Amino acid sequence: MREIGDVILDLRGISLSFGGVKALTDISFDVREHEVRAIIGPNGAGKSSMLNVINGVYRPQQGEVILRGDHFKRMDPYRAAKAGIARTFQSLALFKGMSVIDNIMTGRNLKMKANLFQQAVWWGMAAREELAHRAKVEEIIDFLEIQHIRKTPVGRLPYGLQKRVDLGRALAMEPQILLLDEPMAGMNVEEKQDMSRFILDVNDQFGTTIVLIEHDMGVVMDLSDRVVVLDYGRKIGDGSPDEVRTNPEVIKAYLGASH
Amino acid sequence: MAFFLETLIGGLMAGMLYSLVALGFVLIYKASGVFNFAQGALVLFAALAMARFSEWLPGWTGIDSPILANIGAFVLAGLVMFAVAWIIERLVLRHLVNQEGATLLMVTLGIAYLLEGIGQGFFGNDIYKIDVGMPKEPVMVLENMFEGGILINKEDFIAALIAALLVGALTLFFQKTATGRALRAVADDHQAAQSIGIPLNRIWVIIWLVAGLVALVAGIIWGSKLGVQFSLATVALRALPVVILGGLTSVPGAIVGGLIIGVGEKLSEVYLGPYVGGGIEIWFAYMLALVFLLFRPQGLFGEKIIDRV
Ligand SMILES: Nc1ncnc2c1ncn2[C@@H]1O[C@H](COP(=O)(O)OP(=O)(O)OP(=O)(O)O)[C@@H](O)[C@H]1O
Ligand SMILES: [Mg+2]
Questions:
Q1: What is the model's pTM?
Q2: DSSP string, A146-194
Q3: Domain assignments of chain A as residue spans, ordered by start
């Protein structure tokens, strides 16, 4: 079974604003290896912004991201991917024109070694590589139980299945850290249960460290080891699910929030 | 009947070339969301490089076989197009990530002027010849099916064949290789593509290289027909109606659109031309494109444009 390890990802004094809007104000927290770390908070609290800072989609005005001891003042998504960080998106960002299998195959991109010329003429290495990666992708497809839609263009899939493909594409990267932005939003109870099971299995079987944004408190309490609570871009709570649940400031934020 | 077929085939062959150039537009548009006004300048630049290198090579190296000189010139011109793609990415595109579409459009206009200026400064601004041994004389085919047979222009036929092969090869490349998949991914969603570790910079170089190679082939074909001169830069604009018709985001659209316009031009010239006083070939494509813009702005195959409310 998994055993929670040392700090793998450390966020220090992150402040991010868009023009006049302060999305994040001096946020610090850490993520330990193999844990499931949740980020919660009312709408507009800055949760997605936080995830975007971690993988470098947004560049904070202040603070730094420390990944396995390496300090990044400016992360960028490509470097983050190379460093083993994968993510899913709150508003789906799948490649709509492509099939499920092709979408997931793109997640293997960094692991492919054949050069452009070899690919262009489909030489041995490129072909062998393609097959090996294809096998890996089929494993993921089995794992996520989406065999029946392998060849379907993702644009035609219902929302819940698209969310699963999004997870599949991230898993194809075999990441060490997986950032999930509301993977269960808009799902019914059954779909949520499936998704929770996948997340726990990933964490359990591959030891993947998971940073999870989720609105459903039941899910958060079930899945996560530790929880960070944001409100209006500030951190108002941090600790085990039980600690956070009984934190008066957190209760106030949630009762006061209009949702 | 034979005459109709002859016109039709002529139109299809001309259309294939339009498709090829339109493909250059579509590729860049898909990958970076920018309408590349420099496509015509790329054609001119590539054709100039090809014409001058094939002229200079024998002097530089002592090669006296025209075939070898042409092959050498083609390789050199290809390398030049690679350098152009690399420089454009390095000096321009890289600094403009996430800019407005209008900004990028202006930038490609700037690139067009620069390419035209530098191309002519470097390679000269005369009229040059490209002679890759395209056969000039027409042939008769299907003589036993139709009286008098069908007259086919061999040069156009070979040009269309080359264009078709290139389009086919590119389609395969996009559908079947890892890089092709990455290119499609970038075309669909920049941010997601980057987040899974697809390097945008490299993809842009590849896209502009492909656009450059397409321009090179188009430049050679047109150049050997019309001579290499400044007006080549505007020839590419004849593919503009094609992308409007086919849809800026669709590769099959570029191909079908090119064929429709090629055929439409020739047929309308022959069958409508006499009634409207000729010259119809020049404006027919634009008119067709305009009609399309009114009724189906996304083109035949383009994605539906839905504005968020
Ligand atoms: N790209 C952006 N440009 C401008 N403002 C932004 C941008 N991204 C986020 N914001 C602002 O930053 C604040 C935090 O947004 P964020 O999306 O991080 O919240 P969230 O906690 O993920 O909310 P939700 O639960 O609705 O997803 C909001 O006020 C939002 O409007
Ligand atoms: Mg969010």
A1: 0.83
A2: -GGGTTSBGGGS-HHHHHHHHHHHHHTT--SEEEEESTTTT--HHHHHH
A3: 1-84+175-259, 94-174
Pocket of ligand 1 contains residue A43 by CB under 6 Å:
yes
Residue A57, Cβ density class (10 Å: 0-12 exposed, 13-18 middle, ≥19 buried): buried
Query: Nearest by CB to A107, which of B177, B191, B196?
Result: B196
Q: Could you give the CA distance from residue B9 to residue A259 in angstroms, rounded to a whole number? A: 65
Cα angle B168-B172-B173, degrees, rounded to a multiple of 5:
115
Q: Answer whether A78 touches B (CB < 8 Å).
A: yes
A46 Cβ below 6 A of ligand 1 = yes
Alpha carbon distances (Å) from B257 to B17, B58, B184, B188, B271:
11, 41, 21, 22, 20
Per-residue pLDDT of chain A (259 residues; tens, 9 = 90+): 578 889 999 999 999 999 889 999 999 999 999 999 999 999 999 999 999 999 999 999 999 999 998 898 788 899 999 999 999 999 888 998 899 999 999 999 888 877 777 777 766 777 888 888 999 999 999 999 999 999 999 989 999 899 999 999 999 999 999 999 999 988 889 999 999 999 999 999 999 999 999 988 888 988 999 999 999 999 999 999 999 888 888 888 877 654 4
ipTM of the predicted assembly exceeds 0.85? yes
Show the domain range for B174.
2-295
Structure tokens at A158: 């219902």
Please answer yes or no on whether B184 and A97 come within 8 Å at the CB atom.
yes
Closest by CA position to B283, among listed B264, B258, B305, B302? B264
The atom number, within ligand 1, closest to the CA of A51 reads 18
Q: Does the beta carbon of A41 sit less than 6 angstroms from any atom of ligand 1?
A: yes
Instruction: State the CATH number of the domain containing residue B216.
Output: 1.10.3470
Q: Give yes or no for A66 touching B (CB within 8 A).
A: no
Q: Which fold has domain A1-84+175-259?
A: Rossmann fold (3.40.50)
